[in-house]
Amino acid sequence: MTALTDLSTVGTSIERAHGLPNAHYIDPAVFEEEKHALLLSQWVGLAVAADLPEPGDAKPLEFLGMPLLLLRDKDGDVRVFENICRHRGMILVNAPRKIEGAIRCPYHSWCYSTKGALVSTPHVGGPGHNTHEAIRRDELGLSEIRSHIWRDVVWINVSGDAPAFEEAHADLLRRWADFEQPLHHGGADSTFSLAVATNWKLAVENYCESYHLPWVHPGLNSYSRLEDHYHIERPGEYSGQGTMVYRQLSDKTGATFPDFPEVGSKWNEQAEYVSVYPNVLLGVHRDHAFAVLLAPQGPERTLEHVHLYYAAADTDGGLRARNTQLWRAVFEEDICVVEGMQRGRHAPGFDGGRFSPVMDSPTHCFHDWVAGRIEAHRERARAAE
Amino acid sequence: MSDLDAAMIRAHAAGDRAALIRLYEQAADGAADLDAACFYLTHAYIFALEAGVPEARVLHARLVAQGREA
Asked: B25 contacts in A (CB within 8 Å)?
């Protein structure tokens, strides 16, 4: 089978490399290929655990067209299931709600526990007969998707065969060990979503690099100059940028958000922003953190779900609102560039572009990961023919 | 239509699970034969199971006693 695109120039040295070809941003066939090579086979960010504050809380979600159910079980563990009944494939939960006892399918009322066990099959053996030897309940629990919680993000591995999360992201876990502390979601005023007319990878690429900061975020640049930033690159896992001049937000009285306890003086003015491949953008500071989950909606549409976190549950509401507004403004400033690059990908003469060997290495690191994963996926497909 | 049927329809329309549990159990207790009783009892049990109320355990035990539930 002929490869959909030629990636031979992507993984070469940054001085000579080209970016990914246009088809990786606009072609539905390549989007489908990437779905398997880059998303379903990896640990992807689906949601945040803060969406489910209490046992029994359930939230239906779609990811890449798959109906999923995010659920906090009776023991408090967050689980992800396919949101369908094992009987006739009916959608089980249509809107966020509390599961008080069992999940009852609205079609024939098969019931599941919050841990996914099939607990009743009414009339399955005829009216008033709720068992049948052919219907083995222990084999017909909800299909559970492998999941892991880190930094409140619910990561899922749909294929089920990625290395354990702690192994896949061991380096980043070590890097940010200082921040391995309880995170408190800021609540309703600390989350927002942006619908962006772009391929999800352009959002990753833009987040990776600091090259654009003085041009696109002049306000940010007033306190965070280009030369105060450094690259972060871990080939195959993540890339991004750090700053050495983070300044805390304060109110009129000079009050700031509380620091994460014992985070260390290293982080007094340092902050880091990392794209965790494939689709989670994280930021850490001494006094707050955020997670941006990218939900690809198709080759040219992406939803960005932003969540802000603090070191304490009772932070000041006014300061929190200002911080949300600050980050919203930054992410909105990025929309015009990622949408502009997306439109640019329809120029037939564009060859994927070139990279600044000095400024673009975190972006090239991401392209190299994409190309490598796709080449490996194609190789497996060829071997299976 | 009996009063019980009408009450069941009203409870369904209102999504009143507590009433559904009570009415289906009542229907089971007044049923003419075992199959009909277990049919109604099943409905009472399922609504109780969904609601997570203690009655579920009792209804489950009644069905198990008749060999109708695992």
From this structure: none
